[in-house]
Design brief:
- This protein is α/β, with parallel strands linked by helices.
- The protein has two domains: about 1-30; about 40-265, 3-Layer(aba) Sandwich (Rossmann fold).
- It is about 40% helix and about 20% strand.
- The protein is built from eleven helices and seven strands.
- It has a seven-stranded mixed β-sheet with strand order 3-2-1-4-5-7-6.
- β4, α9 (about 175-185) and β5 form a beta-alpha-beta unit.
- α3 (about 40-45) runs antiparallel to α5 (about 65-70) and α3 crosses α6 (about 90-95).
- The longest helix has 27 residues, at about 5-30.
Length: about 270
């Protein structure tokens, strides 16, 4: 028969474990993507002398090593650079993924028109052969189920809510877009979103149209409704001096906005 003292000790131990084990499991889960990242491949990609000089200059404020590590970038991965614009991250991902991987460089019509020939110049002469450029509207983008290890949005997720001049509505439907990505990702696959923070509680339609910002909680809600789990977040781009009232292109705040960095995971 157990003594009252021994029973009390065992009860305390069980209570402690019930709190400690989930916390440790969560910590391990948060480190999963970073643990898969290939630091050597990431460093080599960033340091490559074959990258455009403008890209090297952008590295100072873009912090690509941090973002790619957070994504879990590694050789052999299949990833989509979503609304990739001029392909800054597409090139880095292609260099990391290597010949056994693939990078889908995706832009919609609006983004493609805005960047003009920049992508064509970047990929001229088949210099990054493991890339696949796609240009179509968000609602029309077809991605095979369970085909991707990761997806990356860098300062582009908010634009799905943006209504261009002359257009009858926004670029896409965020819920539909995120649900389609959920289907396209392999179990355990991740989506990383880096974007400009808006004031808490503001409607994405309003904050995006006026300031090109989005409430981080609105992003979380859309991903969680699609079945994703918030796996990790990083404050590396946080700026408490940004009061969220300025357009992100304002010279006083450009490249210094308060930004969030989230990683969402499709359950395995």
């Amino acid at each position: 028969m157990r003594s009252p003292a021994l029973s009390a000790v065992l009860t305390l131990l069980l209570i402690t474990l019930s709190w400690t084990l989930p916390a440790e499991a969560a910590h391990r889960a948060h480190k999963t993507a970073e643990g898969k990242a290939d630091a050597r491949a990431i460093s080599a990609a960033i340091a490559s002398p074959d990258r455009p000089q403008a890209d090297h200059e952008r590295d100072a404020w873009a912090k690509p090593e941090l973002v790619l590590t957070f994504l879990g970038a590694r050789p052999g991965m299949h990833v989509i650079d979503y609304l990739a614009a001029d392909g800054y991250y597409s090139e880095l991902l292609a260099r990391v993924a290597g010949p056994k991987g693939q990078v889908i460089v995706y832009n919609n019509g609006g983004y493609s028109s805005f960047i003009g020939q920049k992508l064509a110049k970047r990929f001229a002469d088949h210099r990054l052969p493991n890339t696949l450029v796609k240009v179509t509207e968000i609602a029309d983008l077809k991605l095979p189920a369970n085909s991707l290890d990761a997806a990356l949005f860098v300062m582009s997720y908010h634009d799905v809510y943006y209504t261009p001049k002359g257009a009858s509505g926004p670029m896409g439907d965020a819920g539909q877009m995120v649900s389609a990505l959920f289907t396209a990702l392999k179990p355990g696959g991740v989506v990383v979103v880096q974007d400009h923070a808006a004031q808490a509680g503001t409607s994405p339609a309003e904050s995006v149209q006026k300031l090109h910002r989005i409430d981080p909680e609105a992003v979380k809600k859309t991903f969680e409704q699609a079945g994703f789990k918030l796996d990790a977040q990083d404050d590396a781009f946080k700026n408490s001096e940004d009061d969220h009232s300025k357009l992100v292109f304002d010279p006083s705040i450009r490249h210094k906005t308060d930004e969030f960095l989230f990683r969402f995971r499709k359950p395995a």
